[in-house]
Design goal:
The protein has three helices and no strands. It is mostly helical and 75 residues long. The longest helix is centred in the first third of the chain and has 37 residues, at 2-38. Its main location: membrane.
């Protein structure tokens, strides 16, 4: 009887920890990707400011091109 309880605890706890870690990793990755999509690491205004600091006036095409590159790399 005591052996059966010890065996159940000895196998049940590590298996449930592994399953919990896998599920947590999956949902954390999904949440992180959602946050990146909603709040990109750089915005169009930041790109404009970066160009102005370099002494250049960016065209709308350049800004859209840079944003498309960021979105492509985040997928």
């Amino acid at each position: 009887m005591a052996l059966a309880i010890g065996l159940c605890l000895g196998l049940g706890i590590p298996i449930s920890l592994i399953i919990g870690a896998v599920i947590g990793y999956y949902f954390a990755g999904k949440y992180f990707k959602k946050q990146l999509k909603e709040n990109p690491p750089i915005t169009e205004s930041q790109i404009r400011a970066m160009y102005q600091q370099m002494g250049r006036k960016p065209t709308e095409k350049q800004i859209k091109q840079i944003m498309a590159t960021f979105k492509k790399n985040n997928k």
